[in-house]
Specification:
Helix content: 10-25%
Number of strands: 5
Structural class: alpha+beta
Largest sheet: 3 strands, antiparallel
Distance between the termini: 26 Å
Strand content: 15-25%
Length: 96
């Protein structure tokens, strides 16, 4: 179910309209990058604000990667892409 209230992404507060995907568990969501590097540049994010991916529970980690797969399928359908590039920025030194 898509959010009806603001969603926190680190220090940013996203409007509900900026979130196009929420996992069935609600543990992960996806948004279009505000400064996309390429068409279809999406962010798939855990709902809980953390400092590093190592802080995710097993349930959150599984949900995040299942969400990545679901968003990949959405992206492939919308843009007709046959491949994607996945990137992971983890922590302040990596830009997050």
């Amino acid at each position: 179910e898509l959010p009806t209230e603001a969603v926190q992404f680190g220090k940013f507060s996203l409007k509900p309209s900026q979130v196009f995907f929420t996992s069935t568990s609600g543990l992960s969501f996806a948004t279009v990058n505000l400064k996309p590097l390429v068409p279809g540049h999406m962010l798939v994010v855990p709902r809980r604000c953390i400092g590093s991916i190592g802080e995710l529970t097993d349930e959150e980690m599984e949900d995040l990667w299942l969400s990545v797969r679901a968003v990949q399928r959405i992206l492939e359908g919308k843009h007709g892409s046959q491949g994607v590039t996945l990137g992971l920025q983890d922590g302040p030194e990596a830009g997050q």
